[in-house]
Amino acid sequence: MKIVQAIKRHNNPFEFNNKKYLTRPLVLVFGNRFILENGTIYEEIRDLFPDGHLVFGSTSGEIMDDTVMEESVVLTAIEFEKSSFLVKSKNLKTYQNDEIALGNSLIKEFPKEGLKHVFIISDGSSVNGSALITGLENGKEIGVSLSGGLCGDDDRFERTLASYNEPPKEGEIVGIGFYGETLEVTSANYGGWTPFGPQRIITRSQGNLLFELDGKPALDLYVKYLGKKAKDLPKSALLYPLSVKTSENAEPIVRTILNIDEKENTMTLAGDVPQGSKVQLMMSSVDDIANGANEAGRLAMKDRLKSPELALLVSCIGRKLVMDQRTEEEIEEVKSVIGGDAYIGGFYSYGELAPFSQNNSCKLHNQTMTLTLFSE
Do residues 278 and 292 share a domain? Predict the structure, then answer.
């Protein structure tokens, strides 16, 4: 596996850390939405990699090695020596905003023979991540693993962008399938958030739209708990996500609020919040988040046969807001576990896609650190 990384800050050209020639590489481009909207960015990267497979995603922060950046673009170009990959993309508008149908159709684009893993980079502001995963899981083989993330837009929640071999655009979902007998891919996630306050029941919801808790408007209750911070919604909600437990035996899933509708008194979350689920507010600290990143690294490394050569990290914008000036500590925790030889790239997201520990089935998570580790 040959890997090249580079960073672009503002209007400056890309700065390479180890420039070398790659043949038909997979080029992962994660960056600030405003820079990706610039009409010249696609052609600039195409000139750098004329035969590359270019995959774009907007972010809430960019990760390269053990550094977290803002208002930049980072790229990781990979030439596989023993493995292969296939990239497919679809747009939500084509499927009349039916994420399940899109996910099912997308996963069927990948030939089954030899497929080991599919990494998803999806629009994060208009896509219901839970429904997307349902479609993907329904169409894939049992032995194929999934991971990835929902694109971000800093803490603005205006629009997010993704694309494959074209300028980034809204509503796009990109899947990257990885093939190879010697290819080893492992993924894991962990949070570090703690529930607090009373447990409530979701008495009215539809998909990822939350109407009522305990028979009362959900937004009213949320605003009450936030107090003065309510004026900064939905940004302030990132500091207090919801723990959602769909049944007594189910693992709790963390859900971030993406948007609010004051007129309808509703909240739009990054994934489904089924009626009857039990929910609690959650909070965290810098140390808890750093420790959670360490645990995510430990879980991803568990039972690996080979040391990772590439680590793709997807962490949540809410974690970044809590960490503030200490954000890089969670990346450093990951690096301390996976070792210093792996190239690290990634982004801060509006949602993370990964299985629970010891479970091959992918789920949508919020407020977690998710790792996907590759070696040939």
Answer: no
Q: Are residues 83 and 221 located together in one domain of the fold?
A: no
* Per-residue CA distances from 185 to 149, 309, 374 (Å): 16, 10, 5
Residue 273's domain comprises 195-282
CA atoms of 302 and 375, how far apart (whole Å): 14
Q: Mind giving me the DSSP string for 147-188?
A: EEEE--BTBT-S---EEESS--BTTEEEEEEEE-TT-EEEEE
Query: Could you give the CA distance from residue 273 to residue 374 in angstroms, rounded to a whole number?
Result: 32
Regarding whether 122 and 98 lie in a shared domain, the answer is yes
pTM over 0.85: yes
Q: Quick one: 212 exposed, middle or buried, by C-beta within 10 A (0-12, 13-18, 19+)?
A: buried
Report pLDDT for 160. 97
> Pick from 282, 309, 331: which residue ends a domain?
282
Q: Specify which residues 244 forms β-bridges with.
A: 253, 279
Per-residue model confidence (pLDDT) at position 20: 87
Domain count, the chain: 2
